[in-house]
Amino acid sequence: MAQEFCAHSDHEEPDKAFEDLHQSNFILACGWVACQKIRQLNLDPYPWGLLARGLDKFGDIERGGQEFLLGLEYLAVVGTTVMVVMADVNEQALKNDWALELVVDAANGRINDMVMDVDLVVQNVEVIQEDMRDVFQQLRLLEERVEGFEQRLTDSQRDIVMLVFEKGVNMAVVNFFSGEWEQMNKNLNNLGLA
């Protein structure tokens, strides 16, 4: 299974990459790398203690022997590697969360700006509606005044026609009286001669 995984990966095969190392030397080299990595991890005391105990080169050889300590160290190496990967994933997740928060904050800012713009538009529309109501009211008043003027103009035209008619009648009366006046003057002159 490990050979299948390594054959499909882009890395060199393990036996060629470390062909000059024995298995125990390979585990010791991995243990040294894991010791460096575990110092960079920010772990709780319990998992850190478990991993550090497995990486301890000065364990009790008499209790388990060299192979037991190598196996323990290899397990600690695997655990440390898993922790490093998890730390990288967590760091990337935190970066993604931070980037997402920035995007959400920017979107919220744009939404707030749009809401403010919409509120301004609504206020402007309300002002325009109020102005249009005033304009329509003024138009109604103007229409009423125009109707009043039209009525007065009609009345004035009728009065003018009446005045023209009365003028004509008066002119006829004046002409009549002028004729009578001339006749009276003639009669008086005739009486004065007689």
The proportion of residues in beta strands is: under 5%
Could you state the order of secondary-structure elements as H and E? Answer: HHHHH
Q: Which regions contain 5 or more consecutive residues with pLDDT less than 50?
A: 1-12
Estimate the global geometry from the Cα principal axes.
rod-shaped
Helix content: over 70%
Distance between the termini: 170 Å
Overall pLDDT metric:
78
Please, how many helices?
5
Question: Which class of secondary structure composition applies to the elements?
Answer: mainly alpha
Characterize the main sheet. Answer: none
Number of strands: 0
In short:
This protein has 5 helices and no strands. It has about 190 residues and is an all-alpha fold. The longest helix is centred in the middle third of the chain and has 133 residues.
